[in-house]
TrEMBL record:
Gene3D superfamilies: SET domain, Tetratricopeptide repeat domain
SUPFAM superfamilies named in the record: SET domain (SSF82199)
Pfam families: SET (PF00856)
Xref: SMART domains: SET
Protein name in UniProt: SET domain-containing protein
PANTHER family, per the entry: SET DOMAIN-CONTAINING PROTEIN 5
């Protein structure tokens, strides 16, 4: 692997925005080292901003090992020790590749490129996380934002898995990271865990239906109703703090609306997606800036009236301050 397939190695920089630090690294029973809040942290707070130690693409273990060995030699001794102190779930003859595979976070949603951080990689997993990690492709920095209020003494957590019922999550976490999750969700009594599993399975089912382009084309009303159903399930499972899942839902609803020419609803959905993303990643990422622009000018989206113009002349109806339910039903085109 050559330097064209990975960004240049640089010393990790913890760019802590607040003084004193809002967290400390501590040994967590049955988890190893984790980060614990030193103060109450409000929702939407930037907790950590950090540059990567190493960035690389996945590859054959031997090739990745050679690449990382070369890149590690460019780091100072302190940074080398930081990398080597991270957990390796794949011990063997490729220790550097094992550490990278165990700890790397993707540099953006769906990216094959991964990065390792000395502080952020200490954050443990929870299936009900209180924080969100985000890669900023402009600044090349990873951030951690609180997506729900965090109490002093509470562990800071992010989500490692891709969702689904507990059996799927546990198998994935065991294979990739070598641990059995015992978070507040997974340690519920069996009856409550079954209810949670049903909700999370329903979340995946609805997400798949919403992403179906043929349904969006032929039955956009059904797609919007699925968005509304998904919002209810997210509230039931995650309470008032669904985080990035809410941002994605509202952006999906935006895309459904704008593809059929409904600028009125599209603008509202884009604004809701923007506000949800602010809580997860702040206002500096290119994605947040783009969604903010679409809230003001939804017709700038490339799919404006790509499917039809059937909703082109939609006008916003008037609702009283206490008519939240009526407004939501109008917004998602629920007539009965």
């Amino acid at each position: 692997m050559d330097s064209d397939t990975a960004s240049k190695t640089q010393n990790s920089i913890l760019e802590q925005p607040n003084e004193p630090l809002m967290f400390e690294a501590k040994t967590i029973p049955l988890k190893g080292i984790g980060l614990v809040a030193l103060q109450d942290i409000p929702q939407g707070t930037l907790i950590i901003r950090e540059r990567p130690l190493l960035v690389a693409r996945p590859g054959a273990p031997g090739a990745l090992e050679d690449f990382l060995s070369s890149e590690l030699k460019k780091l100072d001794k302190a940074s080398q020790r930081q990398f080597l102190s991270l957990h390796n779930n794949f011990p063997g003859k490729h220790p550097f590749a094992g550490i990278m595979k165990t700890n790397a976070l993707p540099c953006g949603s769906g990216s094959e490129i991964g990065a390792v951080y000395p502080t952020i990689c200490r954050i443990n997993h929870s299936c009900l996380p209180n924080s969100q990690n985000t890669w900023n492709s402009d600044t090349k920095i990873e951030t951690i934002f609180a997506i729900r209020p965090i109490k002093c003494g509470e562990e800071i957590t992010i989500m490692y898995d891709q969702g689904g019922p507990s059996t799927v999550r546990q198998a994935s976490l065991k294979q990739s990271f070598g641990f059995k999750c015992s978070c507040v969700v997974c340690s519920q009594p069996p009856a409550l865990l079954r209810e949670s599993d049903a909700r999370r399975s329903r979340i995946q089912q609805l997400d798949g239906q919403i992403g179906d382009p043929f349904q969006m084309l032929k039955s956009p009303e059904k797609s919007l109703k699925d968005c509304h159903s998904l919002l209810q399930v997210l509230k039931a499972e995650y309470g008032a703090y669904p985080g990035a899942l809410a941002a994605r839902l509202y952006y999906d609803a935006f895309q459904i609306s704008i593809a059929h020419g409904d600028k009125t609803r599209a603008s509202i959905f884009a604004e809701k997606s923007y506000q949800a993303r602010l809580m997860c990643e702040g206002n500096e990422t290119p994605e947040v800036k783009r969604v903010k622009m679409l809230a003001t000018n939804p017709s700038n989206h490339s799919t404006f009236m790509a499917y039809s113009s059937k909703w082109k002349n939609t006008k916003k109806e008037k609702f009283g301050e206490d008519d939240n339910e009526a407004f939501e039903r109008w917004l998602f085109r629920i007539s009965n």
